[in-house]
Each structure stands twice: as C-alpha cells, then as structure tokens.
Amino acid sequence: MRDDKGSTIPLYIWLVGILLFAAFVFFVFAKGAVARSGAQSAADAAALAAAQEAREGLRLEFIAGIPTEAWIPILEGKTPPLDNGHLRASQLAAENDSRLLGTPQHTWAGGDFGFKVRIETNYAVGDSLVPNTEDVHAQADATAVIEPRCHMVASVPGQTIEFYCDGSGLWVIDPKTFNAGDLPTAKELYEVHLAE
C-alpha cells in the first residue's frame, strides 16, 4: 500500500509542471495581445493625426480656389489633399512608443479620401519560455478618412458662391471681398474618422 501511494507523487509533480508551463505560455500570448492592442491604438492615433493635418491643408486649398471654380471639388472631397500628414502621424506614433513604417498612403475608403498608416511598436514582447519572442515587435495598420460635410448650392462667376455645411448651415461668400477668417473652420468643412 505504501508503494502505491508513493507512486502518485511523480504523477503530481509531472502534472504541476505541465500546468506551470501552460501558464507561462498563456502569459506570453497575453503579453503579445497587450502589445498588439497597443500597436493598434498607436496606428489609429497616427492615421487620425495624418488625416487631421491634411484636413487643415484642404481648407487652405479650398480658400485658394475660391476666386475660381477650383473650390468646388475641394469642398466636396473629390480632390485629394496635397499634404500626406506624415509629420503629425510620426509625432502621434512616437507619443505611443511606436514608429511609422514608411509614409501615410493615400487611399479611398467608402467613397472618401483617406490615409492608411502602418506602425511598429518600439517595445518588444519580451523574454519568455517561448523562443525568439524577446525581439518581436507588434505591428498594426489603420485607415482614417476625410469626409466632406459641405456641398455647393450655387456659384455664379464673378458674383457670390453658396455652399451648405452640415452643422453650420448655409454660407454665402463674395469671392472679391471675402475674409479667410470668416470662412468655416477645417472641422466645419470636413469630418475625420477611422474607416469602418
């Protein structure tokens, strides 16, 4: 009887060892999931920053086009912005302990112009029982779009132009006497959000 009882101790040790190993492996996957989640947050922030920076540039392009008919496609989001938002995207990635891989890429999503970014975290998954994880960095990508909030109502060359914006209503502007400070802000002209 004593021998039968003693033979179960190695079995318990073996089972405990397996459970501990499984727990360590699970911990590694949990660390990987946390790193991936952080990477996705950084990518989202960088994509939104790129689109917001480009939105400011679009407003300037819109103002420059008012004396001619060039303002219409810019207002309605049919003309891609000249700025690719790289500077702000890089800053936001760095603030989230990550870095941009390449530059924000122009894209169209759901009929709206946008930017796709890819980032990589500066931090790695870290040491673990799983080999080669200590130097693994999480990567993620995200796309943010610039959705126009306004559309043209009327345009008579040499006279007034009219356009309507969701949220701020009807705007009537004289191309010869308008003041840039009296025009809608970039936020009133375009909405920035992540692509679905």
Draw up the topology in text.
Blueprint: H1 2-6, H2 8-65, H3 71-75, H4 86-95, E1 98-100, E2 105-109, E3 112-124, E4 137-148, E5 150-155, E6 161-165, E7 169-173, H5 186-189, E8 190-194
Antiparallel strand pairs: 1-3, 2-3, 3-4, 4-8, 5-6, 6-7
Describe the structure.
It is a single chain. Helices cover 42% and strands 28% of the residues. The protein is α+β, with helices and mostly antiparallel strands. Strand 6 and strand 7 form a beta hairpin. The radius of gyration is 27 Å and the shape is elongated.
What brief labels describe this structure?
5 helices; single chain; 28% strand; 196 residues; 5-stranded antiparallel sheet; alpha+beta; 8 strands; 3-stranded antiparallel sheet; elongated
Largest sheet: 5 strands, antiparallel
Q: Which regions have little confidence, pLDDT < 50, spanning 5+ residues?
A: none
Q: What structural category do the secondary elements indicate?
A: alpha+beta
Number of helices: 5
**How many strands in all?**
8
In angstroms, what separates the terminal alpha carbons?
67 Å
Order of helices and strands: HHHHEEEEEEEHE
Portion of residues in beta strands equals: 25-35%
Q: Let me know the average pLDDT.
A: 82
Radius of gyration using CA atoms only: 27 Å
**Overall geometry:** elongated
Q: Into which percent range does the helicity of residues fall?
A: 40-55%
